[in-house]
Design a protein that fits this description.
This protein is an alpha+beta fold. About 15% of the residues lie in helices and about 40% in strands. It has one domain (about 5-170): Jelly Rolls (Sandwich), CATH 2.60.120.10. Strands 1-2-9-4-7 form a 5-stranded antiparallel sheet. Strands 3-10-6-5-8 form a 5-stranded mixed sheet, with no helix packed on it.
Length: about 170
């Protein structure tokens, strides 16, 4: 992971995420939680990585990946936000620094959703979900300053551009 983990350690992390049932199992989610807990517990090391930053936007930085899993550091510029979306794969994330606000939504049709819950995710927070959904959410950094999170997705970063399956437009709220 770009000067953070040796190639050997990257391989060990990716191997620890393997499960006989693939990335759609409870065993996989437990392993992903363990990896995330380890990574978010080292904010000084993560913050020193040469991560791309985009003021006012978020920047995805691939840390490691193989044909089953991809691990990303996302640097959230102040004011940045994802679209309202659902995932085609398992999605796990942990907050390293700053605060990321996660808003959950309920679909009202194939392209529109209403907000149902909003939580501020603080450093050390870790969550995992299977694509058994719908798991529709949006992540934002209201600031002040940047935030960094680590995301583990159950997809091959060379086969898919992102983990997003469906994007929605907010209605109400």
């Amino acid at each position: 992971m770009q000067g953070f983990l040796s190639a050997e350690r990257q391989g060990a992390v990716l191997r620890s995420l393997r499960s006989d049932e693939g990335t759609l199992s409870r065993d996989y989610l437990a392993a992903a939680r363990d990896v995330l807990r380890e990574l978010v517990a080292m904010p000084d090391l993560i913050q020193r990585l040469p991560l791309e930053r985009k003021p006012g936007c978020y920047a995805r930085n691939l840390l490691a990946g193989d044909e089953n899993v991809s691990i990303w550091a996302i640097v959230w510029g102040e004011g940045s936000a994802t679209s309202i979306h659902d995932h085609h794969c398992s999605c796990c994330f942990g907050v390293v620094s700053g605060v990321v606000t996660e808003t959950w939504y309920r679909a009202i049709d194939a392209s529109r959703a209403v907000p149902t819950e909003e939580q501020q995710r603080q450093p050390g927070y870790v969550a995992c979900m299977l694509p058994s959904g719908p798991n529709i959410h949006r992540m934002r950094n209201f600031g002040p300053g940047e935030a960094i999170s680590i995301h583990i997705y159950g997809f091959d970063h060379e086969a898919h551009a992102s983990s997003i399956e469906t994007e929605y437009t907010a209605v109400g709220g």
